[in-house]
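Tokens in:
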């Protein structure tokens, strides 16, 4: 059963997801060569608690931190550490919060200083694919329409779609039905209805789609060690148009003024 949210619930989910968006923008201010991923994690945790919420990932299935910080060939679920960012890195920052009993969950992949053109293209295409997926999050479509839109666009640029990790419904739990793969066939999968709230989160590799989990039990990495990008937004399915509950606006304001 896929929950249908009332307008009140959607506004609560919007508040939670906007707090994640603002937290990512706060983290964006600090991203530069020389900072450690653990320092970024501390900034995020403090910001979330200062806003009356609690970190959504901390303790989830035993996850040890507030952020997932995934650098270069790390796809997702990288654990913050003493690793110092360096020029040319890319870093996916994935953040969750729990505010007023509803979860927020979003991610953005940042460039650290100048990065090479092909990496820039990977980030651009991955972000664009997310918005193509969001265009399909309307009543009457199916999750396969979202997956198809993302996969078709990314593969047409020569990139590949990670299969093992997917998007998800979100609500009073971080992960709820439906599953939202970033690949698929048009017309397949659960039917979307107004009021369903889902996180769409393409994880796109420059090279092959294959991944493995590191010895730490969390960090997902590309098998070929080539870079991977990840962007995530939460959206409420609407009639004719999706209602995007989180936003990259705050992040991009910070990046423009850097
Ligand atoms: Co998610």
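Residues out:
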């Amino acid at each position: 059963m896929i929950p249908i949210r009332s307008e009140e619930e959607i506004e609560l989910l919007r508040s939670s997801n906007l707090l994640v968006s603002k937290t990512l923008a706060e983290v964006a201010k600090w991203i530069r060569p020389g900072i450690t991923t653990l320092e970024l994690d501390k900034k995020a945790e403090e910001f979330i608690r200062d806003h009356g919420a609690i970190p959504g990932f901390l303790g989830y299935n035993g996850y040890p931190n507030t952020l997932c910080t995934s650098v270069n060939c790390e796809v997702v679920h990288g654990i913050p550490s003493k690793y110092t960012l360096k020029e040319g890195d890319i870093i996916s920052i994935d953040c969750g919060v729990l505010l007023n009993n509803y979860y927020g969950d979003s991610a953005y992949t940042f460039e650290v200083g100048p990065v090479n053109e092909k990496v820039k293209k990977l980030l651009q295409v991955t972000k664009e694919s997310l918005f193509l997926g969001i265009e399909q999050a309307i009543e009457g479509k199916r999750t396969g329409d979202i997956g198809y839109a993302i996969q078709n666009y990314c593969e047409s640029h020569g990139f590949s779609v990670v299969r093992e990790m997917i998007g998800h419904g979100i609500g009073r739990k971080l992960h709820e039905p439906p599953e939202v793969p970033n690949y698929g066939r048009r017309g397949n999968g659960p039917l979307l209805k107004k009021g369903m709230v889902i996180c769409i989160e393409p994880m796109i590799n420059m090279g092959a789609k294959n991944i493995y989990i590191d010895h730490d039990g969390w960090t997902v990495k590309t098998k070929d060690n080539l870079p991977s990008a990840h962007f995530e937004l939460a959206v409420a399915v609407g009639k004719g148009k999706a209602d995007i509950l989180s936003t990259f606006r705050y992040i991009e304001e910070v990046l423009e003024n850097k």
